Amino acid sequence: MGENSRQQPQTWQIVYSGQWPKYYAEKLRERNARECDKYYDVFTSFASLYNTLEQYRGKIKKLDYENLRRQEDIKSIINDPGKKLSDNDKNFLALQQENIQLIRQHENTQREMLRMAMKVKDVVGKETQIINLEGKCLRLEQENSVLKDEFTTMQLMCRKLEEENKKLKLENQNMLEKILLHKKEEVDVVNLHNETMTRLKEHKMFYELESARKEENNSPEQSTGGNASGRGGFFSRIFRKSESEGDEYESRHSSVSSRCRLYSGPAIVPGKVTNKVEQHTSEMYSLAFSYQGTMFATGGADKCIKIWRSNNLPDVESVTTLTGCNAGVMSIDIDERDQYVVAGSNDAAVRMWQISGGQIRSTFMGHDNKIYCVKFYNHSQRIVSGSHDRTLRLWDVRTNKNVRTIFARSSCHDLAVLSEQGTDIVSGHFDKRLRFWDERQDTSSFEMLLDGRITSLDLSGCGKFLACSCKDASTIKFIDLKLRQAIATFTADGMRIGEHTRCSFSPDGQYIACGSTDGSIFVWNTRTLKREEIPKMHSNAVPVVKWHPMGQSFISLEKSKKFYVWTEA
């Protein structure tokens, strides 16, 4: 306020002095210069452009007028052909027609150029195809040359194999002749043994009658007595000879029954747990007895196999532990001489150990997934294995080679060898089918559809029946192999078959035993088709129940690292 009060007398001074018009005019000029000078060039340029635009507008109007006049002249000429044209009009019309012709020629030229460009493109494409075809022909000629060489080599190999086949046929024929001769000799030995025993009995009876007659007559015929004693020495020599011949015959034929598991009398159903053993550090999946029952092997998720001595059940003794697997052990089998153990593992390998040394003798590689089952066959000279990779593989123990691979079309969970030579094999699969195989064929000879995924197979001692456990329906099928059909189905309330549950026959085939996921054990009589009562002793799932070859006991595995020995109650 003070500053305004000081400026106010100056303003009034200007007003009173009469100089205010000049003062305000000067202020307006300053404001005009301050606000308008920076737009002066813009306004000047705009004015210049506007003037130019007006000039062009005038010229455009003039040209439009001239164009309109010429169009009217052209129309009048068209309407009145006899009218004379000026030179400019004639030139204009001539130029216009020439322009039209040039435009048409230009269009034709463009079309021709486009057509030529398309032809050039086609030619270039065909040249490229020709070059590619020439390269392909060259490659085919090279491949043809290689195939010709391979064909020549295959012809030579074929001839060589034909010659070897002829030799093998001759050897086979010679072997058959030798086998027939050998069997004839065996028959002769048996006949000789029978004749010798018959003659021995006749001479012995004659000697006894002669002695009795002499005692009754009480005649002192010393000479006759000496002859009788001489006959007795002769008879004893004949008897010893016949015994030696009989022993030789038995020894020559003992190998025929070496595969058979012997048992004393009919099997019984054990009803009492007399021993519990816990040695494994994880779940157990497999158990196998030796053929004479003197030992058994167990395996599971702890990647090891334990060998047990079972001469005096229920007492068992740990013999050795076999290691080398890189995953859980799913299946075990012991050879007929109790020398080797073979096992299939989740690491897709089959391994064979020597029991005495505990060392791995052979490793068989070839499967692409975990192995569920392995079996010795052909007098333990071969091994058959089934895997989750849907194949069966046959292995030669002597050469450690895969001699055959059979594509089974489904995951194989268990196997049974129906003939000792291994020509007849039956396999159980995830797709609920039993498949019968001849190892010499690539396709199954027969298939059976069951009511659930198959978890295990077991062959009866007589080889006529097959037990098959099915997961989905929790049933056990009792199959007649001659009829190739199920003649009975066993099931029970509360029985639940798991993924790794395995059933088994008793040695005489009278009973079938199977474990359940609730810890129960179920036993059925195959003759009466009735269930036998077994007390529940397990608290966890029972994947395996296996009869002892003598038929008086069995062993059950529990998932919680234990196995139970059952004997007669």
Description:
- The model is unreliable at 1-9 and 219-261 (pLDDT under 50).
- It is built from five helices and 28 strands.
- With 569 residues, it is α+β, with helices and mostly antiparallel strands.
- Helix 4 (87-217) runs antiparallel to helix 5 (222-253).
- The protein has a four-stranded antiparallel β-sheet, with no helix packed on it. A four-stranded antiparallel β-sheet has the order 2-3-4-5, with no helix packed on it. A four-stranded antiparallel β-sheet has the order 6-7-8-9, with no helix packed on it.
- The protein starts with a helix and ends with a strand.
Summary, kept brief:
Helices cover 41% and strands 27% of the residues. It has 569 residues and is an alpha+beta fold.
